[in-house]
Amino acid sequence: MAGTRWIAETLFDQLGFRMSYRVVKVLHETRTAHQHVLLFEQPFFGKMLMLDGATQISKRDEFIYQEMMAHVPLLAHGRARDVLIVGGGDCGIAEEVLKHRSVRRLTQVEIDPQVVAFAKKHFPEFAKPVFADRRFENVIGDGMAYVRDAKRRFDVIIVDSTDPQGPGKILYSDKFYAACKRCLNAGGVLVTQNGVPFLQPRELVSSIAKFRRLFADATCFVAAIPTYVGGHMAMGFASDDRRLRRTAARTLAARHRRAGGFATKYWTPEVHAAAFALPRFIADALAEAGTGKPRRR
Ligand code: SAM
């Protein structure tokens, strides 16, 4: 189609492939102090946000990732009151978290004010209810610095970051995870965006190895998200309470009702419980991450 622009995701260039999207209209393109931001309208996926050549969100499939990153840790925990989101500037996960009646306070620490400004303008269905909610606290700043200096403690920390490149790199470090652990209340839960194991196995294995040096229990749960190409998306899960990830679907259903029984398009108690059942190649990769405990000589 002459004159039609196609935009390619360059995240997997080193693997020699690109996912390309035909563009109806570029809504915004700029380089901020932190990253290259590209927002465009796509005929099938709707509005799409790319940061530094990596797809962050598409209007058509965002519900899968946002629901799982919010409801799995909160309902596994079961009585989360104070929640921290690191990154998440599109406000999609914040909107899901605030559906939980038990949540007393939600703090979001996003490094790039322009991403939040875009969310208010281009994703009002997320940003409007979030910014209208008095439980929500919007902090513009580096997530590493925030958890390093924080006095407050949280029941759940959700790291909705970019991939380990640019400003997001520090959010995959030992010192970041150790600072997150310090900011968690006893029995608290940490969940992280950990890439697509089929294409980015190192990203997942390295995070889980770091979790295992800090927490009694560390693994991941998975979901398939069409615009996060490459099969299963892995979301890291760590806690000192080994029971949480094994919570039965019946208990999750009761907790969901208590939380307000809000409508979902992907999350169900059964999908939640099953998301921790990992395909062999991912389970084998996690085994590589070791126990985190020093090996007996
Ligand atoms: N769901 C997306 C994904 O999986 O790739 C992530 C979406 S969210 C838009 C990612 C956000 O993390 C971006 O807005 C980016 O600015 C923010 N971010 C990156 N590094 C950060 C840091 N060090 N501290 C706080 N926010 C950061």
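The chain is about 30% helix and 30% strand.
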